[in-house]
Amino acid sequence: xxxxxxxxxxxxxxxxxxxxxxxxxxxxxxxxxxxxxxxxxxxxxxxxxxxxxxxxxxxxxxxxxxxxxxxxxxxxxxxxxxxxxxxxxxxxxxxxxxxxxxxxxxxxxxxxxxxxxxxxxxxxxxxxxxxxxxxxxxxxxxxxxxxxxxxxxxxxxxxxxxxxxxxxxxxxxxxxxxxxxxxxxxxxxxxxxxxxxxxxxxxxxxxxxxxxxxxxxxxxxxxxxxxxxxxxxxxxxxxxxxx
Length: 243
Prior knowledge:
- With 243 residues, the chain is an alpha+beta fold.
- It has seven helices and nine strands.
């Protein structure tokens, strides 16, 4: 009798697990509004146009990505409580391969640079590494290492700026929004108001499969694409910038 009960409990647990899995799939089907064509890795395809109901921000980002010849990407809507939930929930919303594939974009500023915004932005034809502001993309599971970022900028400037004159910190939300056009939790390197050098953690380039996710201009809008294509087509600088 005890054995029969144990077998019955085991069968019940399996059914419950199957039901929960089905519920998760239904939730993803409800919440994920996918736009953009996703071709098989290594395949070819032509990105379709945005849905007529897509927002203006959505359209701009879609247009910029496709203008670079990138055909494998997704732009998705997520639930309104996305940032109130843990990384595993967020991974499920996007059907990302792992929580390591979830990334964020931040505008950093050199606090030792006395130029006030908009001074300090790169000018046409000037050395972009002389900028006061930089966009940095890292994984949510990692922590930005400000000293590594400082050393990269020092090296790129050829030692013309003393290390003690470079101290990187997160830019204020007002400055970040003035540069990118996007609010907190919506910052993205695509279709920004002003261009600044963009740096990405080398850990993201090593992800497999090669498809990572980040913000897309609206709090509930996310974009996913291959890091290899992103780095190559948008001129992104790869470095070790995390702990």
